[in-house]
Amino acid sequence: MKIAFFSTKSYDRESFDRFLSKSGHEITYFDSKLDKHTVHLAEGHGAVCSFVNDQIDAGILKKLDQLGIKLIALRCAGYNQVDLKAAEELGIPIVRVPAYSPEAVAEHAFALILTLSRKTHKAYNRVRENNFSLEGLTGINIHGKTVGVIGTGAIGRAFCRIAKGFGCKILAFDIFENDEMKDLGVEYLPLKEVLAKSHIISLHCPLTPETKHLINTETITYMQNGIALINTSRGALIETKSVIKALKKGKIGFLGIDVYEQEEHIFFKNLSEEIIQDEQIARLMTFPNVLITGHQAFLTKEALEQIASVTLSNITSFEKGESLTNEIKAS
Ligand code: NAD
Questions:
Q1: Ligand 1 near 106 CB (within 6 A)
Q2: pLDDT of residue 170
Q3: What is the average per-residue pLDDT within 36-42?
Q4: Active-site residue, 234 included
Q5: Which residue, 129, 255, 250, is CA-closest to 202?
Q6: Is 6 a residue whose pLDDT tops 80?
Q7: Cβ-based neighbours of 44, under 8 Å, separated by 6 or more
Q8: What domains appear along the chain, each with residue ranges and CATH number?
Q9: Which of 25, 204, 234, 261 is the catalytic position?
């Protein structure tokens, strides 16, 4: 099948090219993001392959349908960027890579926790300047802390297994409880209680109308003073302006984010020569207790290989008329 591949980065090309010849598919790589200005590039292809910040709304879907696109293959797990109802009405199936490496994201969440709790980002810079002073580098132990996990799907579960290894007490909130987690010792509680009883909160639920701004001015009041908040899921789970207020007051003690509410204007680009216009991310970057990474939690060698092989096999299954195990439908 001819695939129009949007938002291409060098690491995508490397991993997909490795599996391409075996798959029998053909890829045209486009650096551009999929939007109303670039959608025409899909002409002459049968499928579109897109990533997290390619907006696949009703207008784009209609245009893709007119261009003869038969399938959209997301090379990611989250699908909040897709209008599933519009896709269903047009008869365009949407497939994704549901769990390419939950450990990659869970380990990154822990990397954020460990960096913030032991200030290794500061120590790295200090030592490079021959400053071996320990002043201001006092950290906190993770062992014995209570960790609240919101969403115990594939990534949340991998996160809980790591937290268990660190000797944490684990509380969780999910709309579905998981038996494997209960056997591990995870205690499911209502959201408010998880927020109130945890020292560290890590978000692993998808972005949906119900979870948008799950962390807001009101829910922050339930939390303990000095809470460590980690978000590797989707930016809009957090209402950024409320979190900035809570950081200023010291209510939030650490913030580690790999995703940001307005990230589509900023992430995945080199803006080092530009003036950042987004006031909220600029403010966040001024806090010494905030660590931001640019949506890289998925970015491991193992995850990229899995993404490429599952995406190409999703497309092969569609071409062969097989049932699409990784299809997502409007509920
Ligand atoms: P998953 O579908 O396996 O798990 C999601 C869990 O969230 C499920 O257990 C579900 O029941 C739960 N959930 C749904 N609605 C909820 C609600 N209202 N409240 C509480 N829990 C709710 O997904 P996953 O593979 O674990 O991925 C989780 C999210 O991580 C994805 O949706 C995606 O947004 C994000 N993600 C980020 C990166 C990254 O690089 N930063 C990479 C992959 C995925």
A1: no
A2: 98
A3: 97
A4: yes
A5: 255
A6: yes
A7: 2
A8: 2-100+300-328 (3.40.50.720), 102-292 (3.40.50.720)
A9: 234
Query: Are 210 and 187 in contact, with CB atoms under 8 Å apart?
Result: no
Cβ atoms of 52 and 9 closer than 8 Å: no
Which of helix, strand or coil describes residue 73? strand
**Angle subtended by helix axes 102-118 and 120-128, to nearest 10:** 60
Please measure the distance between the N-terminal and C-terminal CA atoms of the chain and give it in whole angstroms: 28
Closest Cα to atom 42 of ligand 1: 298
Q: How far is Cα 142 from Cα 131, in angstroms, rounded to an integer? A: 26
- Ligand 1 mutation pick, 74, 202, 233, max ligand atoms within 8 A of CB: 233
Per-residue model confidence (pLDDT) at position 99: 85
| CA of 45 relative to ligand 1 center, distance in Å | 31
CA nearest ligand 1 atom 14, residue: 205
Average pLDDT over residues 154-168: 98
Q: Is 263 a catalytic residue?
A: yes
Measure the CA–CA gap between 317 and 70, rounded to whole angstroms: 13
13 is an active site residue:
no
Residues 28, 45 contacting (CB under 8 angstroms): yes
Give, in degrees to the nearest 5, the angle at Cα 93 between 59 and 85. Answer: 50
Burial of 162 (0-12, 13-18, 19+ CB in 10 A): middle
pLDDT band at 264 (very low <50, low <70, confident <90, very high): confident
In the predicted model, what is the mean pLDDT of the chain?
Answer: 97
pLDDT in tens, 192-212: 999 999 999 999 999 999 999
Q: Is 236 in the pocket of ligand 1 (CB under 6 A)?
A: no
Question: pTM score, two decimals?
Answer: 0.92
Category of 250 on φ-ψ map: left (φ > 0), alpha (ψ -120 to 50) or beta? left
**Distance of alpha carbon 133 from alpha carbon 228, whole angstroms:** 25
Kindly give the pairing relationship between strand 327-328 and strand 94-95: antiparallel
